Amino acid sequence: MNQKKISSRVYSIVKSAITAAVLPVFLIYIMIDKPDYKIMNGLAKIVLPVAQWVGDGVTWPIHAIGRAASGIRELSTLRSENEELKVRLSDALRNKTECDIAISENQHLTQQLDIVKEIPQKSIVANITYNNEAFSHSTFFINKGYDSGVESGMAVVSFEGSLVGIVSDVAENFAKVRSLTDSKSNIPVRIAGSEVYGFLQGNGSNTPTIGFFSDPEFQPTRGLKLITSGIRGVLPNGIPIGEMTSHEDVNVVLPSKISDVIVLKFNSKDKYK
Predict the structure, then answer these.
(1) b/e for 132-164, b at 16 or more Cβ within 10 A?
(2) What's the pLDDT tens digit per position in 99-117?
(3) What is the pLDDT of residues 227-253, one digit of tens each?
(4) CA 176/CA 154 separation, integer angstroms
(5) Pair 156, 237 in one domain
(6) Structural domains in the chain (count)
(7) Domain that holds residue 89
């Protein structure tokens, strides 16, 4: 009985296929030999859907393969973009880690070197109005005086925080500052990050010299950074001064190279006001 059912189904499929194949041929015959538009319109309602069904059945594998190929291409593109994004994310995380490490090391180094980095809020900003360099002397004037709170002995620094000079004379609306290169300048200093002390002596040139006394065996070299030592209570401890260019010469900020300065206010206990 099962065999009869299978044979019946096969017969139906074959019959349908033959009908689908014969009808288009019959329609073409009528169109060419005996064109009857009523018959043609009637057959078209039957033949066209059947032809479309047969065409869809025949071309289905081709469409399926095309869709699969398109999906494979999109998947390949997505994988490539995903790999690229992974690389970019990895680079970004690595750069962030390096920045975090650099910031941490910089903070740690600054603490070790005892370098003052922050300018006090109660400081006085002034303009350099006149620069006087003659022979072995080097002084300059600023447009702020005792009316603005400037006092003799105050430290004058650049906007980057490096020492430029010390106020020597004060008037109502201006003050005279002795720069580090002046022959009368003698600043107690220290090698940053160490306990080696000395004095920075101006000589009239652009590079004052330094002599060390706390460690006779110490050998100064190029690249060492100097800061104020706080000895004698002349200046607060930790103000950057400059960098050694040889075993005795020091590169400092010259007043002729800048136009604005900051006057630092501090008390007798070496603290900024």
Answers:
(1) ebeeebbbbbbebbeebebeeebbbbbeebbbb
(2) 665 665 555 555 445 555 5
(3) 998 887 778 888 999 999 988 899 999
(4) 11
(5) yes
(6) 2
(7) 1-113
Residue 127 corresponds to which amino acid? N
Asked if residue 109 and residue 128 are part of one domain, the reply reads: no
Helix 37-113 vs helix 2-32: crossing angle, to nearest 10: 110
pTM here is 0.56
Read off the DSSP letter of residue 249.
Answer: B
Given 84, 113, 142, which residue is the final one in a domain? Answer: 113
Domain of residue 166, CATH code = 2.40.10.340
54 C-beta neighbours (distance < 10 Å), count: 17
Residue 270 lies in a domain: no
Same domain as 168, residue 85:
no
Report yes or no on 2 lying in a domain: yes
CA proximity to 238, closest of 189, 166, 202, 198: 189
Which positions ≥6 away from 213 have C-beta within 8 Å?
197, 198, 199
Separation CA 194–CA 142 (nearest Å): 34
